[in-house]
Write a structure and sequence with these properties.
By secondary structure, this protein is α/β, with parallel strands linked by helices. The protein has helices at residues 2-17, 46-54, 71-79, 100-111, 136-147, 187-192, 194-210, 219-236, 246-266, 268-287, 297-300, 304-343, 350-376, 381-417, 420-440; strands spanning 20-24, 35-39, 59-64, 82-85, 115-118, 155-163, 172-177, 181-182. Strand 3, helix 3 and strand 4 (82-85) form a beta-alpha-beta unit.
Length: 444
């Protein structure tokens, strides 16, 4: 009961937190029977909450033992079937790393036909790559099946998570769920060579995840991929932009990464040349305080006075809603961000702190506002309900107004500070890059 209640709250929180969410392959999750859900891990606490909130089954979690900080936390985690796993750095000096008790709890959970969520990478880092897959998932799966002579019915399903920007509020996310497979398929390998079976199963998990996510070798290559994707979707195929077709946008990014990795290995000179041009173009945009959209032909062909007037009308009409929205939403939005800055924790936890802090702050703040409304304005139930729904709606108007305001400022800056010479230089750079990318990345 508590689990289902919290699941609904988390699902609603994600509805507001993400601008767009795509989930593919939900039917691949078995409705019953023991199950391991193996997931890549780019975004700390967001990842498990996101997956658990999207699937119908109740899930348990395998988590680092370091978060089991006291008896209260342990009791809470036990209720939600959060099973600790001990890494080398979680073990005190002189103690032996022993996960036998953790394995037994996993097996007990499977005996109850539980679905266990596991991150095979072991750690969470904000990057476009799949880190080394640990063998723990395969050891748990094969160990459980071996106890029942491979009649336990345990299945594994892999889930690939991709973010447009894992650190930002109102970013976009994609979940792709692969078909489930039976651990029993590895019985013959296990009986022949246990280590070989563990490696084989680990390799399969790795390949299934790699097939669904963007892969880069390092941060420098990641930067090139993201810039190439942004340029390609801005000028070459705008209809596949993440704002129009999120799945297509992620597919482009994935294929672009493959092409760039091949290019770097086979023709490093061409790769460096493309990297230099991309870096120069986006550095120029940044120094001019502009975005890619200003050098699209569709924008350049517009009449300046009509563009400015269009934005001004929107700002005037939205301003009253913006002010009201700030009153009811600024404090609960701002507090989690201040909390993150005060904690001075790793940047990977930014989205998690924002989400969990917002889940706490917004209900409290809305309840206080409802109390004030009913006490000072009206105790009418219908008006109170309307007021409740108005607060988050006004919050959206704040976001919309702020984006329009930013665009308006950039538009004014563009028309007042960017002369024809600068425009022509940027258009020349744009056209050169269009030709460069169109010929270099033919696989896209």
């Amino acid at each position: 009961m508590i689990y289902l209640f919290l699941k609904r709250i988390v699902k609603w929180a994600f509805f507001f937190f993400f601008r767009q969410k795509v989930v593919g392959g939900l039917a691949n999750i078995p409705r019953n029977g023991p199950l391991i859900i193996a997931i890549n891990h780019p975004n700390t606490l967001i990842d498990p909450l996101l997956v658990a909130s999207q699937i119908k089954r109740r899930v348990g979690f395998l988590a680092n033992a370091s978060i089991f900080i006291n008896a209260i936390v342990k009791a809470l985690f036990n209720y939600f079937w959060v099973i600790p796993v001990y890494r080398k750095k979680d073990v005190k000096p002189g103690d032996v790393q022993d996960n036998e008790s953790s394995f037994r709890k996993c097996f007990e959970f499977f005996d109850r036909e539980g679905a266990l969520l596991i991150f095979p990478e072991g750690t969470s880092v904000n990057e476009l790559k799949l880190r080394d897959i640990k063998t723990g998932t395969a050891r748990i799966a094969l160990g459980y099946e071996a106890l029942s002579s491979f009649n336990g019915g345990l299945k594994i399903v892999t889930v690939a998570i991709s973010y447009s920007d894992s650190l930002r509020f109102r970013s976009m996310v994609s979940l792709q769920i692969n078909p489930a497979f039976e651990v029993k398929d590895y019985q013959a390998e296990w009986e022949e060579d246990e280590d070989k079976a563990i490696k084989s199963l680990t390799t399969r998990i790795k390949k299934e995840l790699e097939g669904q996510i963007t892969l880069t070798d390092d941060k420098e290559q990641e930067k090139v991929v993201l810039e190439a994707q942004q340029f390609y979707l801005a000028y070459i195929d705008p209809l596949a932009s993440k704002y129009y077709n999120l799945k297509a946008s992620f597919d482009y990014r994935k294929r672009m990464a493959v092409s760039l990795r091949v290019m770097e290995k086979e023709n490093v000179k061409a790769y460096d040349h493309l990297n230099t041009k991309l870096d120069d173009y986006f550095s120029s945009l940044s120094s001019l305080k502009l975005t890619s959209g200003f050098f699209k032909d569709s924008f350049l062909d517009k009449r300046p006075i009509l563009v400015i007037m269009g934005y001004l009308i929107q700002l005037i009409l939205l301003f009253p809603f913006f002010v009201s929205g700030l009153v009811f939403n600024f404090i609960p939005y701002r507090v989690p961000l201040l909390l993150f800055n005060a904690l001075k924790i790793d940047i990977e936890y930014r989205a998690s702190v924002m989400l969990l802090g917002g889940m706490l702050m917004f209900p409290i703040y809305y309840i206080l506002n409802i109390f004030v409304f009913r006490y000072f304005i009206s105790a009418d139930l219908l008006l109170t309900i309307l007021f409740l729904f108005a607060m988050p709606t006004l919050g959206y108007s704040v976001l919309f107004f702020w984006k329009i305001w930013q665009r308006f400022n950039r538009v004014v800056h563009f028309y007042s500070h960017i002369d024809s010479k600068l425009r022509n230089e940027m258009i020349t750079k744009r056209d050169d890059l269009i030709n460069e990318i169109s010929t270099s990345l033919t696989a896209i």
